[in-house]
From TrEMBL, chain A:
S1 motif domain residues: 90-170
Compartment(s) of residence: Nucleus
Source organism of the structure: Gossypium stocksii
SMART domains: S1 (SM00316)
Signal peptide: none
Gene Ontology molecular functions: RNA binding
Protein name: S1 motif domain-containing protein
InterPro entries, alphabetized: Exosome_RNA_bind1/RRP40/RRP4 (IPR026699), KH_dom_type_1 (IPR004088), KH_dom_type_1_sf (IPR036612), NA-bd_OB-fold (IPR012340), S1_domain (IPR003029), S1_RRP4 (IPR048565)
From TrEMBL, chain B:
Compartment(s): Cytoplasm; Nucleus, Nucleolus
Organism: Gossypium stocksii
One BP term from GO: U5 snRNA 3'-end processing
Keyword terms: Cytoplasm, Exosome
Name under which the protein is recorded: Ribosomal RNA-processing protein 42
Length: 321, 287
């Protein structure tokens, strides 16, 4: 059961095993031999010319895998895409990152890639919304836009020649994220989709599924002028210091945020892909069963979610036939 | 430990003020505890405890030794904690030493009682084989594998579980020995003596964030703390030890309040832990 770290009772274990078996039987058969563990032989046609890629090695004339993952073939190249690896960016991905450094004309962001990504001041929409050259003054005021440790949402722009990664945030929807929580999951669980920004209207919550496995769940904010917000934030902060806690997230919204976050945590520990449908179904399941938010992380709810997913997938495959 | 943005800090503080923390817990709820016993076959007793993403191992090793001249009727117990560099990059090299010492000292204070060995959670008189000559030396080692806050509580729970998993070999003493000589002993490898672990306390750490205090803080919540009080409570509800971390002062009335809360929380924790230990021992025997 993929090393699930849960104390399970006997019946729960049997139920979970059954759900996983059902899921296994439903998964596509054609691709099942593509997944490998370390030292598995990779089936290749030795007469054809092929190129050894990442995660492969030659052992006694046989091609073997050196990482756990899925075999990928691009023309002659054979490589293994590791599952539990760092994020591998693709141009156009929506990512969520944390600012680690404010440097000359750029911010450096930690995005779970093998190196820090770069967000140039010039590839940002300026707070005043005017297209113009960035002046030295703008450069000095960079910290009023993003500070160290801020969480920022951006898009992958391109790779530089030296392999470093450039981001851009040329839209109102990108930018600083506040009033919410960041969840870090394995990047392979977030699949590319048309929409990574979700505004869940019934909850008043924003959900951003970063392709790098950083997921933001926070209060909904309208696209806004960040300069004004920054000033407002400073005032807000000073009031907090004075001991007035008016600015805290309302309790009901906080419950929604926590419920969604825990739904994602459950799906992640079960190893299911995280997408909006599945998250919403898990949230609905938990609220319809009146499960306490914290109890969602217990064994019983894990089993319930696994059973629900098995049921759902079996229905959809039947429909396809 | 990565830093948090102002927005996140504010969110965490707000959550604690509103009694709904980031993972849906209330202020006085623990994360689910998961216990595994007998994880190290070479040791006399061992246990692994997981509290959310916090993961610790404790092992107990017993060795025959000589009791000190001042306390001939007592065995010796040593507790050491090591922070593995796999838990956090900052533990690499000598980075974890400060935290290791802090945890070791706190555990020694809470579990071993005074210098004379009086009031210890583990009864040192039960370790004596021949008074003044032979006794068991108990080495209790803790290892932090993964750190997500509340290490002290997890370590104390792991030590409690490891001790209840410990079997000390039965020792036969050769009868005819003169008073000066070291007696000959025969260690049995079939018969083991179990410890009485009912008196071993658990530690409840109350972390103060803003105006409220919480149990079982994650490392994110710990980064927001002003001070933390660790209270070790045994089954009878008696306080065995108390340590305070963090520079900010506390009002004495708050400490009294914390103690009564810790006593209440510890009841649930001990019961939960006991049932988890029993389940772990049962599953170990099965396999």
């Amino acid at each position: 059961m993929r090393g699930l770290k849960l104390p399970l009772s006997q019946t729960q274990r049997v139920r979970l095993q059954r759900a996983f078996e059902k899921l296994q039987s439903l998964s596509a058969k054609a691709n099942s031999d593509a997944s490998l563990t370390v030292a598995d032989t990779i089936p290749v046609n030795y007469e054809d010319a092929f190129l050894k890629g990442h995660g492969t090695a030659d052992l006694n004339g046989e091609l073997v895998a050196t990482v756990c993952g899925v075999v990928e073939r691009v023309n002659n190249l054979v490589y293994v895409r590791a599952l539990r690896a760092r994020y591998k960016p693709e141009v156009g991905d929506v990512v969520v990152g944390r600012v680690v450094e404010v440097a000359q004309k750029r911010w450096r962001l930690e995005i779970n890639f093998s190196q820090d990504a770069v967000l140039m001041l010039s590839s940002m929409n300026m707070p005043d919304g005017i297209q113009r050259r960035r002046t030295a003054l703008d450069e000095l005021n960079m910290r009023s836009i993003f500070e160290e440790n801020d969480i920022v949402c951006a898009e992958v722009r391109n790779f530089q020649h030296d392999g470093s990664l450039q981001l851009q945030a040329r839209s109102q929807k990108y930018g600083k994220l506040e009033k919410g929580q960041l969840l870090i999951i394995d990047p392979y669980l977030v699949k590319k989709s048309k929409q990574h920004f979700h505004h869940l209207e019934q909850f008043g919550v924003d959900l951003i599924l970063g392709r790098n496995g950083y997921i933001w769940i926070g209060e909904h904010v309208e696209a806004r002028d960040s300069m004004v917000i920054d000033q407002a934030k400073n005032i807000e902060q000073s009031t907090v210091v004075e001991g007035i806690n008016q600015a805290y997230t309302p309790l009901e919204m906080r419950q929604n945020i926590c419920r969604i976050a825990n739904a994602i945590r459950v799906l992640t520990s079960l190893g299911f892909n995280v997408d909006l449908n599945l998250i919403m179904e898990t949230v609905e399941l938990s609220s319809s069963l009146k499960i306490d938010i914290h109890d969602m992380l217990g064994s019983e709810f894990h089993v319930l979610v696994a059973e629900m997913e098995a049921e759902r997938r079996s229905l959809t495959t039947k429909r396809k036939r | 430990m990565v830093g948090l943005s102002v927005g996140e800090k504010h969110f965490i503080q707000g959550g604690i003020a509103q009694d709904l923390r980031s993972d849906g817990r209330k202020r006085l709820t623990y994360r689910p505890i998961y216990v595994e016993t007998g994880v190290i076959p070479q040791a006399h007793g061992s246990a692994r405890v997981r509290l959310g993403a916090t993961d610790v191992i404790a092992s107990v090793k017993a060795e025959l030794g000589k009791p000190s001249a001042l306390q001939p009727d007592k065995g010796k117990i040593a507790i050491y904690v090591d922070c593995s560099p796999t838990a956090a990059p900052m533990f690499e090299g000598r980075g974890g030493e400060e935290l290791s010492t802090e945890l070791s000292v706190a555990l020694q204070r809470c579990l071993l009682g005074g210098k004379s060995g009086a009031g210890a959670g583990i009864d040192p008189t039960s370790l004596v084989v021949v008074e003044g000559k032979v006794c068991w030396d108990l080495y209790i080692d803790g290892l932090v594998i993964s750190s997500d806050g509340n290490l002290l509580d997890a370590l104390a729970a792991a030590i409690k579980a490891a001790l209840s998993n410990t079997g000390i070999p039965k020792v036969d003493v050769a009868a005819e020995t003169t008073s000066d000589e070291q007696p000959e002993v025969n260690i049995s490898d079939e018969e083991f003596l179990q410890f009485d672990t009912s008196g071993i306390p658990v530690i409840v750490t109350l972390t103060k964030v803003g105006r409220h205090y919480i149990v079982d803080a994650t490392s994110e919540e710990e980064s927001q703390m002003s001070s933390a009080v660790s209270i070790s409570v045994n089954r009878k509800g008696h306080i065995c030890g108390l340590t305070k971390r963090g520079g900010v002062g506390l009002d004495p009335s708050i400490i009294l309040d914390m103690i009564s809360v810790a006593k209440h929380v510890s009841e649930q924790l001990i019961n939960k832990l006991d049932s988890e230990i029993a389940a772990a021992e049962a599953s170990e025997e099965e396999s």
